[in-house]
């Protein structure tokens, strides 16, 4: 387990002792941040059920402005702090030993651009966390995203009001499900449709101008041909 790229590229991360956490695989993490791309730069990240802190640390390494790590497990907290120090990223991080659900209910502060949820498996904790986030729109920045990491066999439908799923990717035993606010997604669709309309309008204008130029050139050629015959 390592930091893939950025300021802490190549730094190895300690694992949490025992088997109570499930760190994301390097393959899935690399794919995740390939999807996020430069969007992560300057972002505020909430890493719930943080475990090793791998996702939040990767975010900081790639230019995130701040990462808030939450876990109730004392060993996980110690591991995250050690990993952050090792990667020299602790200045931009807050590590909080707390129940993730309590944090979601009581948090008061700046919204997050990315909320990452990767709780222990097979306890439906991800559903509970997702519903809490859905009920608190103020947790998420206007263009923010929520990403759930679960085992594919855990996936079940969830009725949401504020959030809407827009993508999912599976990498072996890791399923990543992406959510954003419904209003942000609708706005993105409207912008895309507007771009299509503008492109069509430009194409029509270009075609008209080209036709006019072609007609003028054809008329000039006919006049020249007529003059020669005359």
Question: Could you give a quick summary of the protein structure above?
Answer:
With 230 residues, this protein is an alpha/beta fold. It is 43% helix and 22% strand.
User: Number of DSSP strands?
Assistant: 7
Helix content: 40-55%
Q: Taking strands numbered 1, 2, ... along the chain, how are they ordered across the largest sheet?
A: 3-2-1-4-5-7-6
N- and C-termini, Cα separation: 87 Å
Q: Which superfamily, in CATH terms, is the homologous superfamily of the domain at 26-183?
A: Vaccinia Virus protein VP39
Q: What is the mean predicted local confidence, pLDDT?
A: 87
Structure description:
By secondary structure, this protein is an alpha/beta fold. The chain has a domain at 26-183: Rossmann fold, CATH 3.40.50. It is built from 6 helices and 7 strands; from the N terminus they run H-E-H-E-H-E-H-E-H-E-E-E-H. A hairpin with a 2-residue loop joins strand 6 (163-171) and strand 7.
Looking at this protein, list some descriptive labels.
230 residues, alpha/beta, Rossmann fold, 7-stranded mixed sheet, 7 strands
What's the arrangement of secondary structure elements?
Layout: H1 26-36, E1 44-48, H2 54-61, E2 66-71, H3 74-87, E3 93-97, H4 100-106, E4 112-117, H5 125-134, E5 140-150, E6 163-171, E7 174-181, H6 182-229
Parallel strand pairs: 1-2, 1-4, 2-3, 4-5
Antiparallel strand pairs: 5-7, 6-7
Helix pairs in contact: 4-5
């Amino acid at each position: 387990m390592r930091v893939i790229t950025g300021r802490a590229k190549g730094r190895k991360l300690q694992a949490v002792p025992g088997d109570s956490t499930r760190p994301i695989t390097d393959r899935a993490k690399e794919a995740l941040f390939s999807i996020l791309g430069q969007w992560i730069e300057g972002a505020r990240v909430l890493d719930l059920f943080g475990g090793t802190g791998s996702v939040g640390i990767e975010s900081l390494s790639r230019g995130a402005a701040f990462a808030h790590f939450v876990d109730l497990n004392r060993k996980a907290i110690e591991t995250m702090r050690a990993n952050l120090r090792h990667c020299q990223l602790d200045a931009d991080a807050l590590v909080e030993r707390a129940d993730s659900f309590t944090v979601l209910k009581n948090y008061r502060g700046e919204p997050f651009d990315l909320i990452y949820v990767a709780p222990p498996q097979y306890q439906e904790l991800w559903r509970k966390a997702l519903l809490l986030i859905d009920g608190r729109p103020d947790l998420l920045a206007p263009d923010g995203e929520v990403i759930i990491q679960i085992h594919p066999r855990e996936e079940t439908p969830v009725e949401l009001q504020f959030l809407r799923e827009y993508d999912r990717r599976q990498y072996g035993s890791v399923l990543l499900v992406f959510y954003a606010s419904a209003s942000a997604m609708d706005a993105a669709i409207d912008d895309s449709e507007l771009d299509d309309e503008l492109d069509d309008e430009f194409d029509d204008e270009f075609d008209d101008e080209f036709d006019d130029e072609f007609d003028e050139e054809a008329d000039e050629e006919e006049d020249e041909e007529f003059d020669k015959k005359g």
